[in-house]
Amino acid sequence: MLTYEVLTAFFLEAGFLGVMLFGWNKVGPGLHFFSTCMVALGTIISTFWILASNSWMQTPQGYEIVNGQVVPVDWFAVIFNPSFPYRLLHMSVAAFLSSALFIGASAAWHLLRGNNTRAIRAMFSMALWMTLIVAPLQALIGDMHGLNTLKHQPAKIAAIEGHWENPPGEPTPLLLFGWPDMEQERTHYGLAIPALGSLILTHSLDKQVPALKEFAKEDRPNSTIVFWSFRIMAGLGMLMILLGICALWLRYRQRLYTSRAFLRFALWMGPSGLIAILAGWVTTEVGRQPWVVYGLQRTADAVSAHGDLHMSISLLAFFVVYSAVFGVGYSYMIRLIRKGPQDEMPIPPTSGTPARPLSAAVLDSQHEAHR
Ligand code: HEM
Fold first, then answer.
1. Which of 220, 242, 326, 328 is deepest in the core (most CB within 10 A)?
2. Over the stretch 250-300, which tens digit does the pLDDT of each residue have?
3. From CA 307, how far away is CA 312, in angstroms rounded?
């Protein structure tokens, strides 16, 4: 599946990325926009194959074991495995949402510094419309994703909930906070809302959610990690929804571009999408343990026989190469953000009569010319 990714997406993305990043003023605006769309399309195709592959490792199907090897017998079932549609939607929406938050934060930074141009306002406005629509949608998809996980990986959900046992006849509470202790098999300092776990995960007030003690000790994922990574992701998701609602309110009050407290809120939310994505993946991958392919192969059995020296050298190589690639990438992005949209004039003060009768019209026509 990763080979399909390289063949169908990687070259498309990589080729047009060059035109998109370095082609400003070198190719026409039509070709530049086309290249940007091709990069987006390539990225979505990449997402499709990578998540099909990852999801198969979470919820494998469509295979047979022949002489101890996993052999695909039904490619359609392999690709469209049970967790794939949810993961594809959740991750794609996460990417759009994170981009919107990042773009919104860049615009907020400019507005806070007094760079008040039409392009920057448009950037801010579009980013916040996107957040308003997409953040609640993400919570809804996340909820459905969780129900699918409950069906196929119940131990992961029990670990996310920090839920150890089911006293007979008692519905499952929802722990807002707490500290799951894998040794003592309990969650310390739990702040619980009675029956809410049952309501969210089984849509009933009496059914119970599977508990960690129902699984053998060696089959339990680390609850301390996934309990918190999940809450970081979902908590940031709630803040994103709040950001979208505040933006709508300020738009209505005509203070969207001028409320400094809100501009600071939007600025601080800039990295929240990326942090939520990382927290989401930690939940998904730590929650899959102790399996590398769920129920089929343990992570311990997938470790190849390399010595300390080999491992240290490859880890160091990853560290050096990633630091260089990400370092260059980030510094380029920060340069682009600092520069901001270039071809715009500052918006003239709107209130009052222009000093000279024609100056407002002249400024307006200059705007049009620049656009
Ligand atoms: C607001 C409520 C949210 C809920 C209820 C939710 C639910 C979930 C669940 C249950 C998983 C684990 C699924 C599994 O491993 O089987 C997950 C993973 C993930 N989440 Fe969320 N999520 C929420 C918000 C967000 C936000 C705001 C982002 C990012 C902007 C995000 C990004 C991710 C990513 C990247 C993963 C890992 C990939 C995947 O398994 O889909 N989530 N989420």
1. 220
2. 999 999 999 999 999 999 999 999 999 999 999 999 999 999 999 999 999
3. 9
In the block, tokens 């131990």 appear at 155
Distance between CA atoms of residues 300 and 303, nearest Å: 6
Rounded Cα distance, 47 and 44, in Å? 5
The tokens 């500290």 sit on which residue?
A: 179
Q: Which atom of ligand 1 is nearest to the CA of 143?
A: 5
Residue nearest to atom 15 of ligand 1 (CA): 284
For residue 13, give Cα distances in angstroms to 33, 115, 238, 339: 14, 32, 32, 24
User: From the alpha carbon of 152, which atom of ligand 1 is closest?
Assistant: 16
φ, ψ for residue 152, nearest 5 deg: -105, -25
pLDDT for 211-223, tens place per residue?
Answer: 999 999 999 999 9
Point out the ligand 1 atom lying closest to the alpha carbon of residue 278.
35
Question: Which of 283, 285, 291 to mutate to test ligand 1, by most ligand atoms within 8 A of the CB atom?
Answer: 283
∠ CA 318-98-334 to the nearest 5 degrees?
65
